[in-house]
What we know:
Elements: E1 4-10, E2 13-23, E3 31-35, H1 48-56, E4 59-63, H2 84-99, E5 106-111, H3 113-124, E6 129-135, H4 143-158, H5 161-166, H6 172-183, E7 204-209, H7 218-226, E8 231-235, H8 242-245, H9 247-258
Parallel strand pairs: 3-4, 3-5, 5-6, 6-7, 7-8
Antiparallel strand pairs: 1-2, 2-4
Amino acid sequence: MASSFVDIDWAGRPVQIEHAWVGVHDPRAPLIVFLHEGLGSLAMWKDFPEQLCAAARCRGLVYSRPGYGRSSARDASEVWDVDFLHHQALQVLPALLQALHINTPVLLFGHSDGGSIALLFAAQHPSQVAAAVVVAPHIRVEDLSVSSIEAARTAFEQTDLRQRLAKYHDDAERAFWRWNRIWLHPPFRHWSIEAEIGAIECPLLAVQGLDDEYGTLEQIRGIQRRVPHTQLLEMADCRHSPHRDQPEALIAATCQFLLPGFPRSKQQPGDTP
């Protein structure tokens, strides 16, 4: 997807954010904001956002968080702390929406760390979120998560993972180590957003693969305990990235959640393509 850049002010420092618009061209159509995983970027979504927006007949905004993809970092020497996801949800995302003049409620679609960001934003900004879909989100740190992130560190050091990530990030080295080190930082073992997400008011769909290597089903079931109106989708033959392992099923479930009665009737003459 073709991308462009917008400048935001992140806590007094300028940051350039890579972003792209996908989906229908009708400015009145609902807008889905896509929030990528811990090592993701705009490009790593590949064509999933276009596919989902085409099926749901929505607009889509896809972006790379600071230091990911082609987006600039806030500070080359900055070390992430345990509240790094809060910074993304409560500082970066609001600044981006403001810079792009988005002032109507949005739909959030977040994967992994992006799912956690979506939950935090929805809890803190209820009037700005019409609905949210969180895929393989994290609400607390589990032993399984730590084990898989330790394995990722080994893969980055000993396999071609470094080279593969370099296709999607201007600085794959920094993007990887910031993510990896904070998740393996001992104080981060106590990180949890379980209490905070209880404030979520919007419709919420929480999705997880039964074979997710980064978290157990307690992640999404824990969300439902805190937010009882949450709908759950547990997907068989699916690991941590349902949009790659089961894209058609995930798109169908998302459309059904966002658009009761989906599938829609066929496009009529005069409809916006």
